[in-house]
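Could you join me in thinking about how sequence relates to backbone shape in a protein? We need material for that, and I hope you will provide a protein of your own picking. Once you have written the record down, we can walk along the chain together:

…
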Amino acid sequence: MSDILDRRIVELERELTTLRRKKMTQLQDEMNRLQSDINGTRPVKSDSKGWVADLVPQLATAEAATTRRKGGRGKRLSEEDVIERLRRVVSAAGEEGISARAAAMQSGVFYLRAIKVMDENFTKTGSGKWTRYTLK
């Protein structure tokens, strides 16, 4: 009877150690993610060597079950909606004007689409990276 209890205690201690390692890995990943958000850099991928390699499949399935896949195409915007978004950003820039890149970022419009729309609908001054757009 004592041997059975001792074996069970050893098994539970191993499981506890494994769970502690798993928790530490999750906390380290979360810490890296938070630091990368603060610094504005990409998160550092952890090395999957040793006992971490055993945890990776478990973590991947757990994350896949709880999070949705991000990516793919965004919402399609009509031409009028794109022009209106850009018009708001350009008018907020005032007489100084704004670059197409900055306008695209602030309005949430794809840059290449913003350039095409801005050339047709706004007054363009300057050239190269000094190009600025103002209202007509």
Remarks:
- The chain has five helices and two strands.
